[in-house]
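Continuing the series of single-chain predictions for the mutant panel. This is the parent chain; the variants come on the following pages.
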Amino acid sequence: MIRFVTAVLVVLFVGASNVAVPPPSQAKTVRSSFRVTLEPCCNDPEPNAQGRASGTIVAFTRLGTVLEFSAVKVEFPVPSAGLGISDPTTADIRLVLRRGETDYAECFLAFEPCQSVEGEDAVFKLQVGEFTQRGRGVLKGIKGQCDLDLRTLGIQAGVPELQNGDVATVRVVDTATSTVTDFLQGTVQLKH
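Parent structure:
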């Protein structure tokens, strides 16, 4: 069976050549981490899907520089009749973040082919970064992107700011028929 692996890497980083990280005597450092267990949901269109997300957030408060690393991995078999995916190279996989009753970010994953021991896998990745350089925010898009303003047309790219209790939903979008199929969901749990 061909396994389908969706890997989301949301990386907010400080490039060593671009920003000097202050020594502990010059900045207060705040650290926290988060976890999200992604489980089949939404009428269970793909019962063999599974996923998880975790990461660490570090803030150097004196300079306003933030370092965040997070990773999401989602797996499901292909072909998947429930998700309507026979060819993963044409699949549109997204991660939507919701706070309360409002979706506040939608991340578009980029396809990246790879090989594994089990056979051929399909991998989707998201890697974006943001850091403070010379007093202004700099966004780096490595693979994929996140839209932080869903009410405005186009993509307002950035890095989502997760909060405890936010809901993460993984979905497949069929743009030809405007069909959206949610298949995994989990709640963000911050740990300080």
